[in-house]
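User: For a reading group we're discussing how well predicted structures match intuition. Take Mn2+/Fe2+ NRAMP family transporter. Before you show the prediction, I'll give you the sequence so everyone sees exactly what went in.
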Amino acid sequence: MKIKNNRTAIAGAAFLMATSAIGPGFLTQTTVFTQSLGASFGFVILTSIIIDMGVQLNIWRIIAISEKRAPDIANLLLPGLGSFISLLIILGGLAFNIGNIAGSGLGLEALTGISVTTGAVLSALMAIAIFLIKEAGKAMDRFAQAMGFIMIIAIIYIAISSAPPIAEAALRTVVPLKIDLMTIVTLVGGTVGGYITFSGGHRLLDAGIKGKEALPEVSKSAVMGISVASIVRIFLFLASLGVVAKGLSIAADNPTASVFQLAAGNLGYRLFGLVMFSAAITSVIGSAYTSVSFIKSFSPKIEKNENKFIIGFILASTLIFILVGRPIKVLIMAGVVNGFILPITLATILFAAYKTRIVGDYKHPLWLTIFGILVVCVMTYMSGKVLINL
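Assistant: Thanks. Here is the predicted 3D structure of Mn2+/Fe2+ NRAMP family transporter, as structure tokens, for the group to look at:
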């Protein structure tokens, strides 16, 4: 029974991470960047996948071996650091969640014809319902997996329908005509930046998958999470590339919906609604769950009433959306900011990996440490360049 539960939790954590990454911003960014870079966007995707793998394996393993959440690890390393990181994560998570709520409303509008605001409220109620269930963790795992499979199937269909130039995409993935640092920072920040990279690691901890003996399962879950997100990104890129290569005009106000519609007509537009809703609702859940996980060890009251705080986070995001509207600029900037947060959080975890009071007698693989240091240096450099050019 334990093996079955572990498998469910491993897959659940992977899909929670993946579907947290695959939000409205993820879909829009992929389409917009394919328009600007064409087939060379494949190189950006490949680079981001390599960086994502290094980030996830380092962070998830140290969370598991220390049996502590990221802010607790950071506070042990330097008192107050965990609280500072938690503040950054929660602010970023709230900004993202406002966009996620908006995206879920937009998806339901395309799928059913109801207004964006009505769709957003219904989506928020659906997300809240999951955290009203007694075993919310298991419900969250199953929901994330179901929505993940729906997105993959729908996007593969659109990619096939758009008939992209596969050979050119493969060539430019290795030999790009153009490299854009801002795009790489945004992609990495949107896939493993901010709260996203910790969502699966914290979920495994809550499911009891921790300690040295659990490391193979933790690594498997991390790789699975990045693989799911990457599959969606690759097929969405191919779908967009097929439309761009034909010289078709993509609507600037809703580029992803335009790609789906140009590729497969009215059915494509409905599938966009389904994908957007699936991506947004799972990101609402992932953002709220992970953001609250960063503060629940600060007070027994928060830990005891975790689900109530998660529901409050979702309600706050929804209320801000209703009062302010769809925050497109906030969503894009949140992705960039997450790219800046990543070097801080990853560097913290790498330092912690060599503190016996945190990891005991565990020896972190040298190749992962080197990989992690390279990612910190590269992301710091690229983020700095982007900041200078803003």
